[in-house]
Amino acid sequence: MKTMLALAALLAPVPAYAQGMVTSADPRATEAGREILRAGGSAADAAMAMMIALTVVEPQSSGIGGGGFLLHQSAGGPLETIDGREKAPMAATPQRFLGPDGKPIPHVQAFPGGKSVGVPGNVRLAALANRKWGKLPWKALFAPAIRLAEGGYTVTRPMAAASTNLTPLWGGGRTAVAGPEGGTSTGTADKVGRFPQVAAMYSRGGKPLTEGERITNPTLAKLLRKIADEGPDAFYTGDNAKALVAAVTTAKVAPGDMTEADLAAYQAKERAPVCGSYRSYKVCGMGPPSSGATTVLQILGMLERFDLVKLGKDSPVAWHLIGEAMQLAYADRDKYLGDADFVDVPVAGLIDKGYIAKRSGLISQARALGTYQPGTPPGAQPRTAAPQHNEHGTTHFVAVDADGDIATMTSTIEMPFGSQLIANGYMLNNELTDFSLAPEKDGAPVANRVQPGKRPLSSMSPTIVYDASGAPVFTVGAAGGKTIIMQVAKAIVAHFDWKLPARDALGLGLVFFNKDGLVLEQGTSLPAMQPALEAMGHKVTVSKLGLKANAAEKTASGWVGAPDPRSVGTALKQ
Ligand code: GLU
């Protein structure tokens, strides 16, 4: 009998999640996550260790000087989310990014320097996640990152590229591309430089970093050790708070007004997830201050009545429909989304099936609409739309542990290298330029205007998809400003309608848009559809989009991670 039972146990199907896995946009961060899983850490522990390691090895994209959103699905338990989004200092006003003429300054002028820095949220987010779901002590989460910062790591292709793009802005022996007061400087080289610390750290005498060279970050290692030993308050109070405030307020470019009190008051917030359905699947993600889940659900909802499965991924009609749904959803996003702690955001109305059906009714299968106006969802207050901009400087990572818990997080410092300011070896975000730089439009206040203590609207869209039985089967998130929402929506269509494995779903080209019309991603199968899309009335351009997503799918043999084929990311089994 005993042997029979043992045999039965051997033959019983292994639960699909029996083994954990991790995936991120940087191989060293993925290894950090695996190390934590192997040490008995939970999915949340592994995700936080990756967040901290990414501060060291992918400093151009994210880190403890920034913020993020974490989705956590416990096996058989609830889906919970933590908002670690940056906040505006209490001294911030809606006029923060206006020039002397009362008009918003260009984004390229607004992002570098102290005024764009929001109060970072990632360390408080990590502490809350560790308190709620951690199996390992707080201190353990920092060990891989400290080792990387002390022992050194090699520069990746994306890091070298980010440094190449930005060294001219940093100054110090080279001509700057964008002066602090705007415009383009063509004058004599600025000897000291506008951003001496980042230039010292991530350039070589004003020359960009090269792929493969080695970097150490002992200052950051020291701080990480202190936070590991003393807890999150070592980031938000005391010496680090002083150093952060000094970096912001004494910046050579646009000195800011953050105070130690702003840092001490920061709290990560637990928020209700935003969920809806797409065909037989349930799709859940982050609510305000992210526009992610709301806009993803609008896009998918408008597409639901079309037979995308039959049309297939090579059909220009399919991409025309996706392009139409995208532009209608983004029109609503720009009008209604903002920090719901400050403005009324009609999330329920925006994802209401009846409202979405009405919006979808505007879409013709044969012809482009041409103009894409916001609608009036149930519960909406009168509001104006915000002007748009694009940006890049984010990362997404996923951990699944042996219990089947899932932690999936998008983390950001907004632009590559954020505000270009450094405190204690970590980059400071420029998240406040995710606010609408214009406080009002057509005489009415904009939902996403700067206000003291408010969180800027985000596009970050960490998402989990569940099958009809309610089991999680797919998770995805991305970097790339507003393209994030579209990358996530496209990955879901490609995976569930077109049956592409997660990695191929990410690798499939993207359609986005600018003020002129559709933009098709260069180097993919999409540009071949340009003539057909033009024949449907679209204005079309082809461009590089600089995308970077990350996903994981549940297969018969367990969870499989999917880094973006465009990235240097990796996935590892526990
Ligand atoms: N800061 C952006 C957001 O939260 C993301 C920036 C990017 O990915 O480039 O929406």
Automatic annotation (TrEMBL):
Region (Disordered): 369-390
Entry superkingdom: Bacteria
The enzyme's E.C. designation: 2.3.2.2
A Pfam family reported for this protein in Swiss-Prot or TrEMBL: G_glu_transpept
InterPro entries xref list: GGT_bact (IPR051792), GGT_lsub (IPR043138), GGT_ssub_C (IPR043137), Ntn_hydrolases_N (IPR029055)
Molecular function in Gene Ontology: hydrolase activity; leukotriene C4 gamma-glutamyl transferase activity
Membrane spanning stretches: none
Secretion signal, residue range per the UniProt entry: 1-18
Record bears the keyword Cytoplasm: no
Acyltransferase found in the keyword field: yes
This protein's UniProt keywords: Acyltransferase, Hydrolase, Signal, Transferase, Zymogen
Similarity remark: Belongs to the gamma-glutamyltransferase family.
Name of the protein: Gamma-glutamyltranspeptidase
Organism annotation: Sphingomonas jeddahensis
